[in-house]
Amino acid sequence: MNDLIRSLVEAFGPSGFEDAVRDLIRPLVEPHADEVSVDAMGNLIVRKRAAGENPLKVMIAAHMDEIGVMATHVTAEGFLRFTNIGGVGPHTLLGGRVRFADGTLGVIGADRNDDRSAIHPLSKHFIDVGATSRDDCPVRVGDAAHFERPFVAQGHRLTAKSMDDRIGCVVAIEALRRLPATVPHDLYFVFSVQEEVGTRGAEAAANRILPDVGIALDVTLTGDVPEARSMSVRLGDGPAIKVRDSGMIAHTGLVRLMRQRAEEAGITHQMEVLDGGSTDARPMQVAGPGCAAGCISIPCRYVHTPSETVDARDVEGAVQLLVAVLSNPIEL
Ligand code: CO
Ligand code: ZN
Could you confirm whether 174 is annotated as catalytic? Predict the structure, then answer.
């Protein structure tokens, strides 16, 4: 699975600029789908039809986009000022590298700071692409970039930028490959856009599909590093079944079903209560007349930094759990 993970996490895909990620995923899922389409926003919708009567519509969402930056101004000396795409913390910037869609690499610098313990806001950082003036700068206002960092596998631990949420995309792709030829429900795998700027792609897709059941695949935080937040999720302890986050309280029947399937299949798992953050499960839950929504989370350290770290055993467990849930009748 590491080759697939590497190709997806190293691809370019800040929110609103997901084309390259979609181009990678589409040929991988087409052999396992009955229908593949792309909507106006850019969501990739992969349908696998039910075999039985009166199937439920189940939407599975994993977002293709990642956080990043966008050039707002090119100075006369050829430096770029920029704004954030999604949740970018100023403490993650200085000395980092970004890459634009055309391959241009930039180094992030900051204005002089006399107080060495203070961190400048985003607006006092700049990107240096090696230009010497506005005229020879290859980047234009409105160009987006992602944080540049190669994928590294060290034992079970996998580190890269954009594990949030390419690892969810990997789980969806792997599950599609492993699902039996006939499934009891109409499955809509949605590789969504613009999650990091407010779950916008999944909202549009859910309002089109009007699912009965919605399952998001996304990363969650952990409480297992020094002086971490109080949170019981640990890296390596298996996929996390979300009970709540700040945007959604998961459907209790769906949570119960996920636990039951995990126990039946002998999949090590954990329960998740997340204080902040949300996922594509939220717009699915409240789309149209509403649906039974939940989320299978992949524990991840250092979320929204260029070194998001997951554990390969949790990824495998998430695939197994999703397959177990989708292969069997869902009665809530
Ligand atoms: Co995120
Ligand atoms: Zn995410």
Answer: no
Alpha carbons 197 and 128: distance in angstroms, whole number? 25
Given 195, 196, 272, 308, which residue is catalytic?
195
Domain holding 137, by residue range, is 69-147
CA of 159 to the centre of ligand 2 (A): 15
Ligand closest in space to the Cα of 297: 2
Instruction: Specify burial of residue 23 (Cβ count, 10 A radius: 0-12, 13-18, 19+).
Output: exposed
Select from 105, 125, 147 the last residue of a domain: 147
User: Do residue 87 and residue 218 come from a single domain?
Assistant: no
Q: Angle at the Cα of 182 (from 190 to 241), degrees rounded to 5?
A: 50
Distant-in-sequence, close-in-space partners of 14: CB < 8 Å, separation ≥ 6: 65, 66, 67, 68, 69, 70, 85, 86, 144, 145, 146
Of 60, 305, 249, 328, which is closest to residue 168 (Cα–Cα)?
Answer: 60
Which residues have CB less than 5 Å away from ligand 1 (the ion)? 164
pLDDT value, residue 53:
83
For residue 219 the two structure tokens come to 């990363």
Report which bound ligand comes closest to the CA of 67: 1
Q: How many CB atoms lie within 10 A of CB 263?
A: 11
Q: What is the mean pLDDT of each run of 10 residues along the chain (332 residues)?
A: 97 98 98 98 98 92 98 98 98 97 98 93 98 97 97 98 98 98 97 98 98 98 96 98 98 98 98 96 98 98 98 98 97 91
Domain co-membership, 133 together with 281: no
As beta bridge partners, residue 36 has 46
Contact predicate 100/145, CB 8 Å = yes
Query: Cis bond leading into 164, ω under 30°?
Result: no
